[in-house]
């Protein structure tokens, strides 16, 4: 699958750093048309994979909607990727098999940080890349307007809660104080108003590093998804 000229223009704006003119952001990853996806799986920041030069922006953009191409371009890096990232891919496969749903993998911050230490430092400094990455999540959310946001892991949820808690509606009583383990059992814990007048349900779960192949320890999350879709 390749992206259209118009969609590539938008992705190009999303992925290029305005100061260095380098590809420094991964706004999303999906195997299919993200406009048809109902579910976002949201981490903290994108996995560090293969490096792409700015003149490779088109194939980089195409890979964001083509799982096979993405794997071809990032094969070696995906072998050594984190358990969280591999678990996210397994979750996406489970969703496809169970609900025929192409999950969009995205992040509260779209900047491809080298590691958590760099992410924290950039946040502390209010670095341009951190601020741009934070803005990017909202741009992607408003562009595709999914029905369900699944925030995975305590670090991602803490960042999400810090930024968006005042804009959410119908929040669960435990939203501001609950752990991800507690909130995972509650189902939808809030709603995010979208520009089209609809709302997006917010679900929280543990880090996908615990998902494994079939997610046997995530039955509560699976039941929640079944109710919402």
In quaternary terms, these chains amount to single chain
Residues in helix, %: 40-55%
Give helix and strand order, one letter per element, not per position.
HEHHHEHHEHHEEH
What is the domain total for the residues? 1
CATH architecture: 3-Layer(aba) Sandwich
Q: Characterize the main sheet.
A: 5 strands, mixed
Q: Topology of this protein?
A:
Layout: H1 5-15, E1 39-43, H2 57-63, H3 67-79, H4 83-99, E2 104-107, H5 116-125, H6 128-144, E3 148-152, H7 154-164, H8 180-184, E4 190-193, E5 199-205, H9 219-228
Parallel strand pairs: 1-2, 1-3, 3-5
Antiparallel strand pairs: 4-5
Organism: Ureibacillus thermophilus
Protein name: Uracil-DNA glycosylase-like domain-containing protein
């Amino acid at each position: 699958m390749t992206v259209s000229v118009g969609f590539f223009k938008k992705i190009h704006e999303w992925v290029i750093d305005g100061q260095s003119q380098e590809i420094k952001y991964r706004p999303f990853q999906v195997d299919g048309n993200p406009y048809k996806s109902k579910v976002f799986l949201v981490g903290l920041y994108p996995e560090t994979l293969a490096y792409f030069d700015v003149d490779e922006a088109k194939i980089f953009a195409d890979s964001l909607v083509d799982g096979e191409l993405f794997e071809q371009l990032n094969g070696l890096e995906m072998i050594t990727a984190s358990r969280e990232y591999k678990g996210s891919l397994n979750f996406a496969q489970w969703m496809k098999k169970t609900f025929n749903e192409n999950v969009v993998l995205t992040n509260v911050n779209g900047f491809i940080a080298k590691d958590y230490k760099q992410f924290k430092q950039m946040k502390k400094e209010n670095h341009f890349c951190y601020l741009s990455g934070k803005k990017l999540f909202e741009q992607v959310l408003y562009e595709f307007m999914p029905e369900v946001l699944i925030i995975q892991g305590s670090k991602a949820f803490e960042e999400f809660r810090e930024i968006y808690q005042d804009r959410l509606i119908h929040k669960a009583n435990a939203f501001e104080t609950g752990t991800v383990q507690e909130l995972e059992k509650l189902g939808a814990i809030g709603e995010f108003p979208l520009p089209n007048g609809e709302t997006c349900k917010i679900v929280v779960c543990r880090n996908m590093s615990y998902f494994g192949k079939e997610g046997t320890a995530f039955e509560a999350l699976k039941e929640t998804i079944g109710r919402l879709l």
